[in-house]
């Protein structure tokens, strides 16, 4: 079931946090930047992962910190164009692929709960009115609490049904 909350997603009590990025994302804006600051080892691991793989839009990469926080990076955006400074935009196709992969990951890893923001609508640029039905279709059937951080409230721990 999907639950909408207001608060700071970095304070979630969910077992895993998912967010959208580009396959070559520098993690320098929005939630990705906040995650990079909170868990600097994640970005180092992401760079190492990219050296050994060619991540593509529609895929995901999961990382778990030493203290047990799992961050699932969903490649919802196009990579930066050649000579481009910023990653490309998200698409509904990539979002659907990522969320389908996230559902499979959650089932395979037996996640107990999952938190995510208004996925692909920040730097990714998607319209939330178009993205939300994709989220509902892909994650609604999961038998775990899916905590949607619908409104960002800095440093406020949301009341989550966990």
Average per-residue pLDDT, rounded, comes to 94
**Helix content bin:** 25-40%
Query: What structural class do you assign from the helix and strand content?
Result: alpha/beta
Classify the beta-strand content into a percent band. Answer: 15-25%
Number of strands: 6
Gross geometry: globular
Quick recap:
By secondary structure, the chain is of the alpha/beta class. The protein has helices at 30-38, 40-52, 92-108, 128-139; strands at 2-7, 16-21, 60-64, 70-75, 114-117, 146-152.
Describe this structure in words.
With 162 residues, the protein is an alpha/beta fold. The chain has a single domain (2-152), classed as 3-Layer(aba) Sandwich (Leucine Aminopeptidase, subunit E, domain 1). It is built from four helices and six strands, in the order E-E-H-H-E-E-H-E-H-E. The protein has a six-stranded mixed sheet, with helices on both faces. Helix 1 (30-38) packs across helix 2 (40-52). The protein is globular, with a radius of gyration of 15 Å. The relative contact order is 0.26.
Write the layout of secondary structure elements.
Elements: E1 2-7, E2 16-21, H1 30-38, H2 40-52, E3 60-64, E4 70-75, H3 92-108, E5 114-117, H4 128-139, E6 146-152
Parallel strand pairs: 1-6, 2-4, 2-5, 5-6
Antiparallel strand pairs: 3-4
Helix pairs in contact: 1-2, 3-4
Protein traits:
single chain, 162 residues, alpha/beta, Leucine Aminopeptidase, subunit E, domain 1, six-stranded mixed β-sheet, 6 strands
